[in-house]
Write a structure and sequence with these properties.
With 661 residues, this protein is an alpha/beta fold. It is 47% helix and 15% strand. Mean pLDDT is 82; it is low at 101-106, 152-166 and 650-658.
Length: 661
Amino acid sequence: MAEQIPYAVAASLVNRLASAAFREFGRIYGVMDELERLKNTVESIKAVLLDAEDKQEKSHAVQIWIRRLKDDVLHPADDLLDEFAIEDMRQKRDEARKNKVTQVLHSLSPNRIAFSRKMAYEVEKIQKKFNDVVKDMSVLNLNPNVVVVQQTNSVRREKSSFVLESDIIGRDDDKNDIVSMLRQSHENQRVSVVAIVGIGGLGKTALSQLVYNDGEVTNYFEKCMWVCVSDNFDVKTIVKNMLESLTKEPINDTLSLENLQNMLRENLTGKKYLLVLDDIWNESFGKWAQLRTYLMYGAKGSKVVVTTRSKIVAERMGVSVSYNLNGLTLEKSWSLLTNIITYGDETKAVNQTLETIGKKIAEKCSGVPLAIRTLGGLLQGKNEEREWIDVLQGDFWKLCEDEESIMPVLKLSYQNLSPQLRQCFAYCSLYTKDWKIEKDELIQLWMAQGYLECSDEKQRMEDIGNQFVTILLMKSFFQDAEIYHGDIRSFKMHDLSMKVAGNDCCYLDSETKRLVGSPMHIMLKRDAIGFLESLSSNKMRTLILLTDFSEKLNEKELLVISKFKYLRVLKLMRCSLSNLCDSIEKLNHLRYLNLQECEVVGSLSTSISNLVCLQTLLLHRCKVEFSTIDISKLISLRYFDIEYLKHLNRRREHLDLENWV
């Protein structure tokens, strides 16, 4: 898999080195020339990154160069400058609380002189590493003249007009056919199975959602359940998820399969139900036979709808009816394409010349809605005939034929995102399939990684993050958006979209057999915590540890976290943090700290009061003690959300809210 380009890190380094604050910092410590030379070197590398991204697909040497640049140079340089900035922020914060005499004495202290020497030495060392990378640039013939895609300005004009994924075009007949099948009786079967079969991107999930939410269907069945199965066909997990869909309540993970079976029997006996099992990959008859025994409690006429890409899966499940989903007609394909291009605005029209080209593009998509939506997003805002012809005649169509896949279309759309957007989207591969991504949390995570650089002082990182989310929705990288009072709350990613995003991020659970590459951003469940021992202590930037409400991590399991000293994001659930507080205090680079249902002995605020980079502090249902004077030391804090506070020591009534959102 291709390496993720660290464009945002390079841009952040250049911006930081060029900032007035860092120039002043360099003047104070006598390293202005060294920092200026470092800035020029980073700029020269940043200029060739886009060309390197294009060439790495065909050149293993370029791919190795990118990996070395990331692991050995750019990220260590980012960490080094971060350490300098942290030291400077702490000194300025502390000096503001001292009198003038103390400030003068502090400026002459041995610690400050020693830090100045260390800084000069470390800058020189990292400069040598950069020089080695620059030498290889000419050998690899990397071109600095590749044009950078810019998209932020266009989204301001169309900020609230993206097309919702729920506006599905061209599937009314398919929906009516399947609804009719669900009403048919199968005399020899109490519970019958209907399979929707088709290639990836055809819209099987979207169609089954239309059916599931149809008024006629909800009135016909007494109970309805929706379970996303994907490639982990675990019978106990499926039964548990069925119960959660039925009861709308979380189910204890420690319950045995027998207990879950009894609960399912109580809920389904004598009831005519509909169960949708979305995205089935399992070809094992044995697993399906085991699950099927638990589905026989319902009344006659109950139905199971499965969606799958494989006809073999449908055959192994012994389906009563197999519905082969075809592509959209040319007329419906063009209707969907124009709907995306015009942001769903029926008053807008495509001129005759572009319509002729557009219909040929729609025809080449072979009726696959995801491909049509993706190319529609690519053509948004493009009004020149040449731009449309470039898409029509693109080399990626031949790749689509060779691979019998729409992945080349998705890659083309991904490559036409701005470098900052690519980095933000790639970060989303942290989430697993069908995960409901909360918009506000994602933007806070992007901020923590430094992906949302502001071009002027009037901009807020949150505004840029919202613009990026809107663009990714318009271009169909995100889907199934939930909107409340006009504001986007959450969304999901299509599983095919995740495959274009590189391997810097990963989700780990009990099904994970081995790590691919050396990821920097990890979301994992407790049963995969053993993988943490094998991860590089210097590379990790994100650690999100998930536990079910029946689990609780012990202190010994958490000790490994202390080795990841460059973390920007840490999220823990249901942990005892008595001994970990000292470790959190040493995570100087932390920008995002989220603790849910954690127990802390002592004052957490004392432990984190020196985290001057911390932007987001979320404490939900935690037993913690807090002091407002400690919180006031968190000079970068923008979000502070706390529930069930154990004790608040109000030694200082006033908190500086200048940066808070």
